[in-house]
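Notes from the 1:1 (GR / supervisor)

We went over the backlog. Supervisor wanted to see one worked example end to end before approving the batch request, so GR pasted a single chain during the call. The sequence is below; no edits were made to it. Supervisor asked that the structure be written out right there so they could see what the output format looks like.
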Amino acid sequence: MTGPRLPALAGAAAALVLAAASMLTGAPAASAAPVTDCTQWGTTELRGGEYLYQQNEWNSETEQCVSVDPDTGAWSVTKSSFNLPTNGAPATYPSSYKGCHWGACTTDSGLPLRVDQLGSVRTDWSTTQVGSGAYNVSMDIWFNSAPVTDDQPDGTEVMVWMNHRGGVQPIGSRTATVQLDGRNWDVWTGPGASGWKVISYVLQGGATELADFDVKDLIDDGVGRGSINPAHYLIDAEAGFEIWQGGQGLGMNRFSFEASAESGGGEDTQAPTAPAGLAVTGTTSGSVSLAWTPATDDTGVAGYDVYRDGAKAGSTTSASFTDTGLAASTSHSYTVRARDAAGNTSAPSAAVSATTAAGGGGSSGLLKAQYKNNDSSPGDNQIRPGLQLVNTGTTAVDLSKVTLRYWFSGESGSASYGTSCDYAVIGCGAVTHRVATAGSAKPGADHYLEVGFTGGSLAPGASTGEMQLRFNKADWSSFNETDDYSRAANTAFADASKVGVYVNGALSAGTAP
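Structure output shown during the call:
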């Protein structure tokens, strides 16, 4: 939940000029001016991009303002008047983080690292606290089954509560007390709001700082309790304040988080195996769909790069990819390479060839998509399409073979996206969703939201019912939806010719851009 990154190129050039002047005159280089941020999702790079400050006001629209020092990483809340009940979610979590948060990654973080390969994890964390309001002083550490994710991590969330006031308490219930790194902690366990594991360590008596604190002690304790999977990856650590009420005057004096692999193993230099079994699973007049057998790696495969005619066409974290935006009746050669978190890249897969179909990119079938606009603000930082699939034929349809595509333009900002299902008649657990890059940039259609199904069948004449979906850029920068290919103004469901329906990767209904 982060906001737009600040431009780095001009800042780098200015830094070079100042450094040169410093060498000639003996004067110290000038420091960056403090940044004032009163936006809901704003971000500021800290310490040259090694850390990122995020406003992260995810549960309120009350104005929150902070003053941030990009050089030291210190920041303080200068305006905050939240007033939410303490038996629910906090209004905001202003925080500094290191690693990859919903696909937005800091520079040279040293993460991800597999839990069972951790050698040292330490933090130096100092805060300014106030005697009013309701808040916690917390570090949030995220784990995921794969080295990277653009969405909600699927592993454990570890929360370290250095202090709290105003009657707030962690998720779940207190299940143990433990001494770690010379301090006594209450251990709370319970499921998060969407069912993921949460284990919280609450410091007895509280403190304003943890100097050179051994975070690995907590992680090892969580592994021992079965709360953290040792085969998962530590991907992100963030520290700040979850605020329910008040909050003005809270501040971060310093925060560092350093994680390294255990000694003796050396750096990871082993490349993944080459993907095998690359095959064409479908073609239309404007796309080619591919699938392959997943590669293997000693530390885990982070993703795949797909090459069309020798040039990179796109990347994916799954063992399938659809290359879109192609010309009709054209032939292409494809290969795939796997890569791991250390940047090691496999040899290319065996090549396959595919030829797009003739025609204008549209086709008709026994399925159709219907759409309604759930988003009255075309310039905000989320897109919220309502979709449903209708079977107009006389036989049942296997939903596991069907996907829908909603095309849009990403404009500027992060190239990574987060997706969510807020409601579905068939249950959000039965719906899959991701954002993919189109094969070539077309006006209003350089990306698409792909919606699929985990299984089930759709009877003749039946509909899936409404699926309320939303997606955002990883930096939470704004969209301009006015020219998006699939967007329409209707707020009740209507047939959507510009939402594609794909069966086995081939366009079955609707018109692709």
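Supervisor's comment: The helical segments are 9-25, 215-224.
Batch request approved.
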